[in-house]
Recover the amino acids of this structure.
């Protein structure tokens, strides 16, 4: 829902109407994501009721995060475009890191890698920091210049890639309906990206 949230804040705060292509594509993308991420429990066999009993609270937090992230990106685009993207990223990641450290401290502290696979744990932690830091630096530098509200749908391929990596690396089973959902998401994002030669 993050791109819809960004479009919502752009409309409410700055009076900018979302592009028609976004309004058409986003419900299609959301249906694709619902299938790919098995939100109705069809692939897991749990059924909608049992699935939502497990994921309902997480979904509520995710929607709240999407609203706040959409607001942050719209404010970034309109209010601080002159500020270097690296400074914006440093501020954002520092704030998120501080919140994470305080939250972890309130729940028993951080659990650093240990045990027989300590080297693998540290390597994973290092790669996570490097890859997410790089991705967010690029996003906060490039996306505001392209226009957040009209080009944020590209973010919806992240859960699809996470699903694919979980299948490739962790051996997670993926149902055919999830593959269909992933293809819907990728196709809709590509159509948005190719409209009038714009980059998503």
């Amino acid at each position: 829902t993050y791109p819809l949230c960004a479009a919502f804040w752009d409309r409410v705060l700055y009076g900018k109407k979302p592009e028609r292509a976004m309004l058409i594509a986003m419900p299609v993308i959301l249906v694709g994501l619902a299938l790919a991420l098995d939100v109705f429990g069809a692939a897991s066999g749990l059924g909608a009721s049992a699935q939502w009993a497990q994921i309902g609270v997480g979904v509520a937090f995710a929607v709240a995060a999407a609203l706040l992230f959409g607001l942050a990106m719209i404010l970034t685009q309109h209010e601080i475009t002159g500020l270097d993207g690296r400074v914006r990223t440093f501020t954002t990641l520092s704030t998120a890191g501080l919140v994470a450290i305080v939250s972890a401290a309130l729940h028993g502290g951080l659990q650093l890698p240990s045990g027989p696979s300590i080297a693998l744990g540290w390597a994973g932690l290092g790669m996570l920091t490097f890859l997410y830091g790089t991705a967010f630096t690029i996003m906060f530098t490039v996306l505001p210049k392209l226009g957040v509200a009209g080009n944020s749908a590209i973010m919806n391929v992240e859960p699809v890639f996470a699903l694919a990596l979980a299948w490739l690396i962790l051996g997670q089973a993926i149902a055919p309906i999830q593959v269909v959902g992933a293809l819907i998401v990728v196709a809709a994002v590509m159509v948005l990206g190719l409209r009038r030669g714009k980059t998503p």
User: Anything to note?
Assistant: The radius of gyration is 19 Å.
